[in-house]
Amino acid sequence: MTEKRMTAPSKNNISSYPSWVRDLHSPPNPKSKSASSLRDPPGFSSSLTGKRAALSKSTPHKPPTPEETDILKVKKSWEVALAPAKQLPMNAIMMYMSGNSLQIFSIMMVFMLFKNPIQAIIQTNAAFVRYETPRTRSKMWVVKAVYVLMNLVALGLGVWKVNGMGLLPTTRSDWLAWETQREPLERAVFTF
Predict the structure, then answer these.
(1) How far is CA 189 from the centre of its chain?
(2) What value does the mean pLDDT take over residues 33-45?
(3) CA distance 136 to 142
(4) pLDDT reading at 6 higher than 60
(5) CB neighbours (10 Å) of residue 131?
(6) Where are the beta strands (DSSP E) in the chain?
């Protein structure tokens, strides 16, 4: 088997190649003066861009102050704290769509609905360790409380689903083993 390699076309046989190969190997001419005489598109000004570039070179970016960093960390911690609330609608729809019958899919869904919030509550401090500084510590307890509350709401969604599946002992018939038999006050016997 012979293998053909495509080599760069030479000047004398370039016409035998397709047009895209010719365009690839002969770059366009540099911008001519006529191209610079074209107007800028609406909303764009090349002169303004040059000024912005000069401004950005002349004024270096100053590093954020510790107060600004702390404000940013508190904002990010609020995003982490409210993340479980953003998952609630999705979980509620998934629980509703999975049905109330005991199937492997619905059992796995309920298991994950219990596992994830419990795991998140246990690891609350680890979730916020990178946002906690001595100055933000006083604000973080509120953020952590909201985080735990949102995970408890997710656990409540799991309890609702388990109740809908009939797995919670909420009716009297679920507790018959602990019921005592009633003693009748009198007995009626039918005789002929």
Answers:
(1) 71
(2) 71
(3) 11
(4) no
(5) 21
(6) none
> 167: which 2 tokens?
């797995």
CA distance readout (Å), 72 to 14, 44, 67, 148: 60, 33, 9, 21
In whole angstroms, what is the distance from residue 81 CA to residue 85 CA? 8
Question: Which residues, 6+ apart, have CB-to-CB distance to 133 below 8 Å?
Answer: 70, 73
4-13, 162-171, 172-181, range with greatest mean pLDDT: 162-171
Residue 192 has a pLDDT of: 74
Overall average pLDDT of the 47-62 stretch: 61
In a 13 Å sphere around the CA of 157, the CA atoms on its Cβ side amount to 28
What type of residue sits at position 140?
M
Which residue matches tokens 């909303």?
Answer: 43
The tokens describing 8, both together, are 């760069």
What is the overall mean pLDDT for the chain?
Answer: 83
CB contact set of 117 (below 8 Å; sequence gap of 6+): 84, 151, 152, 154, 155, 158
Question: Which residues, including other chains, have CB under 8 Å from residue 161's CB and lie 6 or more apart?
Answer: 95, 106, 109, 110, 113
148 vs 139, which has greater pLDDT?
148
Distances (CA, A) of 133 to 68, 73, 138, 145: 13, 9, 9, 17
* Long-range CB pairs of 4-9, under 8 A, 24+ apart, other chains included: none
